């Protein structure tokens, strides 16, 4: 992977030796730092992995390299009662949640980006306030609502149903992206006699595909990682636990077994990381969208 | 507006009414969500902060009693607020500084840039519970690899999540490990700094520090501010890592009938969001939990308004 550009190469060839030496020193300094940083970021994964294939006894010592590679630990974690249920619940929450959030947020974001109406700025402020609201602020009335009015606590529904009513963060990000689509496209579609819904579905959505992919990924990760929601709403029924919530009690059940706990930890991290490698571009674009555009 | 529209010809008035109906239709999912999941619970939280309610018997009005209890009698309120502010000050500062450093580093890497970028980014993706479990293991004072390595190097071996003096630094280290989001944001901002400004600075004989101080930093100030303010708001909500680290390090994990009192060790990781959970869902003192929730809301909104003022561009037209 040589990314040295042609002019840089030419400059290098003709530059005085002192400058060349300085460039080389600079290269060495930058790359040593990068290697050090990479160790900080990657070594935890390496240690977690090495421990996950140790024997029970060895995991209790401070030795770093496994004596024997016990791949069976993974099978054992997989067979732990509940583990499969947690997977199914997490997939249900993340899959259905993502679908509902995208479907309900797209029209809202479109209206906020492309319609002119009274109270639009107010609506946008409300979206931003909602985005910034810590979930703990509203959790008590919400819990009472799900528990006493709807009798749905102990299930996944209190986590999934709210997703059908738009998500502030998703609305905000999509709106930021839709603002960058020139209004000429929308106007042309309107002049051609497209209704708003048709304009949105046929003209705007195809252009917004990267942004939609990014917010869908964000939402999927949010649900996958959510701990507070499942702890509050579904923890009273073991059949409705998610991976995040179950993982922690897994440590409780396997009190001293760091090897199994670390194998379970890696199994929870794995899907997110695999998904990232498949959708790297969408994800990085999404992160940039939050910070830079706007 | 109203006066204006009534003086319009009927065709236009009908058109305007149609437009309004269309806007409402597009906004409707969110309008319902705003009412049911934001406005209603927010008002209820304020209402419950003045009520005595254990979740079972009907609520009764107690005036400012809950407020008085939380602010003057509840022994852990100020400790939790102090911890939250510690995390806001230290964790956010270090995370932004480190994120900027990693962002700068990655823009300078010529060989293997793709590998390094992915390596720096990956930990950000680790689910918080899994990342915290991994760190609880890595920083485990007895058998954890980190203290093992520190021992080999002849360095002190702190108790990390089991020592009140080290538990917040350990959480900060965990937060810095997941700095990938900031790295990407800073990287994008750094690549947008106009090259000519660096060339001009070089002609004036600026060194690397001067180039950073007078060219790079002024150009990325808005992004640094954005990172600080969103970091503050996120840290106000800091919950999962603190509670999971405490549970794993103390060895008390739910399910076996023992109830975990968050904040282990010695209340050093105890924060406002955990206080809402503990008061409301473990002690069934709904009123006091709502007092803390209202305080948390007020603090978050204060920071949000700061963000809105700084980023007035959010509201601008295309």
Compose a concise summary of this entry:
Chain A: It is found in: Cell membrane. The complex is a heterodimer of chains A (294) and B (318). Chain A is built from 16 helices and no strands.
Following the backbone from N to C, one meets helices and strands of chain A in this order, namely HHHHHHHHHHHHHHHH
| Helix and strand sequence of chain B | HHEEHHHHHHHHHHHH
CATH superfamily of the largest domain in chain A: MetI-like
Architecture (CATH level 2) name of the largest domain in chain A: Orthogonal Bundle
Compute the gyration radius of chain B: what is it?
A: 25 Å
CA radius of gyration of chain A is: 25 Å
Work out the count of structural domains of chain B.
Answer: 2
User: So how many helices of chain A?
Assistant: 16
**The first-level CATH class name of the largest domain in chain B:** Mainly Alpha
CATH topology grouping of the largest domain in chain B: MetI-like fold
CATH superfamily of the largest domain in chain B: MetI-like
What fold name stands as the CATH topology of the largest domain in chain A? MetI-like fold
Percent in helix of chain B: over 70%
Overall, the morphology of chain B is flat
Q: How many individual β-strands of chain A?
A: 0
**Major sheet of chain B: size, sense and barrel closure?**
2 strands, antiparallel
The CATH architecture of the largest domain in chain B comes to Orthogonal Bundle
Counting DSSP H or I runs of 4 or more residues, the number of helices of chain B is: 14
Q: How much β-strand is present in the residues of chain A?
A: under 5%
User: What count of structural domains of chain A?
Assistant: 2
Pfam families (chain A): BPD_transp_1
Domain ABC transmembrane type-1 (chain A): 87-279
InterPro entries (chain A): MetI-like, MetI-like_sf
Subcellular location (chain A): Cell membrane
């Amino acid at each position: 992977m040589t990314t040295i550009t042609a002019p840089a190469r030419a400059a290098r060839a003709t530059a005085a030796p002192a400058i060349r030496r300085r460039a080389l020193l600079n290269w060495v300094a930058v790359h040593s730092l990068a290697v050090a940083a990479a160790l900080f970021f990657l070594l935890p994964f390496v240690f977690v992995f090495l421990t996950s294939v140790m024997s029970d006894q060895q995991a209790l010592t401070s030795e770093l390299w496994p004596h024997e590679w016990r791949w069976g630990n993974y099978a054992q974690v997989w067979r732990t009662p509940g583990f499969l249920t947690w997977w199914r619940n997490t997939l249900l929450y993340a899959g259905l949640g993502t679908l509902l959030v995208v479907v309900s947020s797209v029209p809202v974001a479109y209206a906020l980006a492309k319609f002119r109406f009274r109270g639009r700025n107010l609506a946008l402020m409300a979206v931003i306030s909602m985005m910034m609201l810590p979930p703990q602020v509203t959790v008590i009335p919400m819990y009472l609502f799900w528990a006493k009015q709807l009798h749905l606590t102990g299930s996944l529904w209190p986590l999934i149903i709210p997703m059908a009513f738009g998500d502030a963060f998703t609305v905000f990000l999509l709106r930021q992206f839709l603002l960058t689509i020139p209004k000429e496209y929308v106007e042309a579609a309107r002049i051609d006699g497209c209704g708003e819904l048709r304009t949105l579905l046929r003209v705007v959505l195809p252009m917004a595909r990267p942004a939609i992919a990014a917010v869908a990924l964000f939402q999927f990760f949010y649900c996958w990682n959510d701990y507070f929601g499942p702890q509050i709403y579904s923890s009273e029924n073991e059949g409705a636990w998610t991976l995040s919530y179950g993982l922690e009690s897994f440590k409780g059940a396997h009190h001293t077994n760091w090897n199994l706990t670390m194998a379970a930890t890696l199994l929870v991290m794995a899907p997110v990381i695999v998904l990232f490698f498949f959708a790297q571009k969408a994800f990085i674009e999404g992160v940039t969208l939050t910070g830079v555009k706007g | 507006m109203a006066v204006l529209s009534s003086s319009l010809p009927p065709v236009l008035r009908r058109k305007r009414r149609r437009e309004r109906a269309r806007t409402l239709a597009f906004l409707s999912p969110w309008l319902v969500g705003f009412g049911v999941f934001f406005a209603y619970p927010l008002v209820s939280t304020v209402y419950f902060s003045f009520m005595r309610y254990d979740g079972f018997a009907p609520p009764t009005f107690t005036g400012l009693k809950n407020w008085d209890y939380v602010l003057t009698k509840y022994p852990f309120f100020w400790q939790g607020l102090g911890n939250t502010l510690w995390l806001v000050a230290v964790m956010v500062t270090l995370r932004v500084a480190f994120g900027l450093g990693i962002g700068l580093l990655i823009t300078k890497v010529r060989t293997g840039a793709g590998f390094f970028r992915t390596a720096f980014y990956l930990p950000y993706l680790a689910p918080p519970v899994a990342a915290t479990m991994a760190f609880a293991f890595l920083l485990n004072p007895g058998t954890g690899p980190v203290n093992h390595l520190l021992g080999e190097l002849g360095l002190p071996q702190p108790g990390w999540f089991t020592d009140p003096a080290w538990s917040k630094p350990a959480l900060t280290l965990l937060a810095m490990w997941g700095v990938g989001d900031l790295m990407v944001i800073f990287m994008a901002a750094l690549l947008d700094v106009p090259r000519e400004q660096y060339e001009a600075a070089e002609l004036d004989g600026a060194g690397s520090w001067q180039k950073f101080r007078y060219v790079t930093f002024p150009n990325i100030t808005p992004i640094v501010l954005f990172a600080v303010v969103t970091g503050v708001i996120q840290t106000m909500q800091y919950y999962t890592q603190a509670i999971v680290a405490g549970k794993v390090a103390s060895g008390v994990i739910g399910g076996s009938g023992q109830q975990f009192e968050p904040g282990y060790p010695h209340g050093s990781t105890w924060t406002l969001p955990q206080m809402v959970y503990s008061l409301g869902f473990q002690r069934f003192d709904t009123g006091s939990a709502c007092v803390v929730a209202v305080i948390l809301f007020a603090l978050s909104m204060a920071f949000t308004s700061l963000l809105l003022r700084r980023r007035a561009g959010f509201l601008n037209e295309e």
